[in-house]
Design brief:
GMP Synthetase, Chain A, domain 3; three-stranded mixed beta sheet; 4 helices
Length: 177
């Protein structure tokens, strides 16, 4: 259950369980909850309201995610329900759960780094970007840090294409935002 849910009703708790099984359409190894795009589930009268924050404002999967969320709740007998898009604060890769990062690695995608401040509930940190070389991206297959970026873009705009020099396997890296 999300940290934003406080003393949730059984219906809301069941909704979180259902949503934990709704896959992201672009990275199906992760659920929409693993990605942290389901921000809140609450009862509003007789309806459930699910608050979603897209990974970025132009994400082409937003409508598919919204429909998948509502369909899953209806199939579980939890309707009526509606989805609300909340774009502020903007989604960040810090919202990907530890379980989601593990699933990314097992799926063959190097997960982004996380922020201890966000994990501790202290808000979203300000990022100062230096001109120094980025830290190495460990290979999700063998763990080697001897990797190189082949392209700034992978199969989607949120991923970059890398190659491991040690095991010679290509892989994608989920870019930190």
């Amino acid at each position: 259950m999300n940290a934003l849910a406080v003393a949730a009703s059984p219906r809301v708790e069941r909704a979180w369980d259902v949503l934990a099984g709704v896959p992201d359409p672009e990275v199906p190894a992760l659920s929409v909850c693993d990605l942290g795009i389901v921000r809140e589930v609450r009862e509003e009268g007789d309806a459930l309201e699910v608050v979603l924050t897209p990974t970025y404002s132009g994400c082409p999967a937003t409508e598919v995610i919204e429909r998948s969320v509502l369909d899953a709740l209806a199939a579980a007998g939890l309707g009526p329900a509606r989805a609300t898009l909340r774009r502020a604060p903007a989604w960040t890769t810090d919202w990907i759960s530890a379980e989601g990062r593990r699933k990314l690695r097992e799926y063959g995608i190097a997960p982004p780094g996380g922020s201890a401040a966000v994990a501790a509930g202290e808000g979203v940190p300000i990022r100062i970007v230096s001109r120094r070389a980025a830290p190495p991206v460990p290979c999700p297959r063998c763990g080697s840090e001897r990797t190189e970026r082949l392209s700034a873009f992978g199969s989607t705009a949120c991923k970059a294409l890398y190659r491991c020099i040690a095991c010679r396997e290509p892989f994608e890296h989920f870019k930190p935002i």
